[in-house]
Amino acid sequence: MDTKSQIIYIATNLFQQKGYKGVGVSEILNACTITKGALYHHFPNGKEELLITCLESIDQAITTDIEVIFKQYQTTQEALCAMIEKLVANFEREGTISGYTFSSIVSEMASLSEPVRNTCSNLYAKIQEIYIKKLVEDGFSKDTAASIALMITASIEGAIMLCLTDNTSEPLKVISHVLPNVLKES
Amino acid sequence: MDTKSQIIYIATNLFQQKGYKGVGVSEILNACTITKGALYHHFPNGKEELLITCLESIDQAITTDIEVIFKQYQTTQEALCAMIEKLVANFEREGTISGYTFSSIVSEMASLSEPVRNTCSNLYAKIQEIYIKKLVEDGFSKDTAASIALMITASIEGAIMLCLTDNTSEPLKVISHVLPNVLKES
DNA sequence: GTCTATAAGCAGATAGAC
DNA sequence: GTCTATCTGCTTATAGAC
C-alpha cells in the first residue's frame, strides 16, 4: 500500500476511535512510522484536509459494506440482523467499533465545522437511502420507509454509543431483537 | 449564584456542546469572566476534575427532569412524547441540545478515561431505570421492559445526533412517531 | 477568594536538505 | 517523496501578590 493510502487507513481508524481533537498529528505520524514531511506533502492543508479525506473513505467503506449485506438477504429484517451481528463480532474482536460509525467526529465537529457537518449529514443520508430502498421493496410506502430508516439509523448509532460506554456488546444485541417491532406496519 | 456553581453551569453547557477536548480552559474562563486563579482554587486538579463535577451535575439535572415528566403522565408513551417534545423545543430555541445528552463527551472519552466512561455508564443506567420502572407499571415483564428501555435510550441519543448533524429537529419528531411501535407487546 | 505573571510542554504547520 | 530542524501559538498548570 502506498504512503497516502496508509495514512488515510490509519488516521481513519484513529479518528473513529478518539474523535478529531482526540488524535494529534504526531500520533498519526507514529502509527504510520512516517514524519511530518510525508504527511504535509500528501495533505498540504493539514489535519482538517486529512479528516475530510478520511470521512470520504468511511463513506466508501460503509456504503459498499451495507449494500453488499443488503443484497445478500431477502428482507430488511434479515439484512439488519446480519449487519448488527457483524458489528457485534467487530466489537468483541477489537474492543471498539472501527467501521460503520463516526459519531465521535459528528458530535464533536457538528458545532465547529460546517464542511465536516455537511459531509457527515450526507453520509447518514446515503446509509438511510439503502434502508429505504429495501423497505420499499418489502412493501412499505415511501414515507413510512423513510421514518423506519431513520429509526434504524438512530437506534444503531445510539446502541454503538452504549456499547462503548458500558464496554459490552449487549446493547447492539438487544437492539437486534427489538428492531423487528419497528419493521411491522403501523 | 456563587463562582463555583457558575463555573459548573457554564462549563457543563460548553462540554455538552463541544466535547471535552473541544473546550479550552481559557474559553471557560472567558465565558465566566473569571481568571485562572479562581478556577484552580475551586478545582485544584484542573480540567478533568471539572469535567467529572459537570457530569455529576448533568446526572442530577437529567434524572430529576425525566422523573418529573414520568410522574406527570399515565403511560410510558405519553411521557416519552412529552419528553421528546421538550427536546425539540430546546433544539429549536437554542440550536443545540443543552440538556439530556452528553454523547459528545462519551464518544470522545470512553476510550481515553476509565473514570469518565464509568460515570457516563452509570448515568445511562440511571436513565434506563426510570423507563424500566414505568414500563413495568405499564404491564411489561422486567426483561422486556429492560430491552425496550435500552431501545428508547439508544434511539433518542441517536436521534439527537442526527438532529445536530442535519441541523433540523425532524429526526426527534420522527422517533416520537415510531417509538410507539416498540411499546407494543412482542 | 480572586488576581497577574509566567512556566513548561505540546499542538499544528513550514523550510529546506537529500 | 521523505527526511530533519525549527517556528509560532496555544494548552494546561503553577507561584505568589493582593
From TrEMBL, chains A, B:
Residues 1-61 form the HTH tetR-type domain. Pfam families: TetR_C_13_2, TetR_N. Residues 24-43 bind DNA. Keywords: DNA-binding, Transcription, Transcription regulation. GO terms for molecular function: DNA binding. The keyword DNA-binding applies. PROSITE patterns: HTH_TETR_2. This is TetR/AcrR family transcriptional regulator. It comes from Psychrobacillus soli.
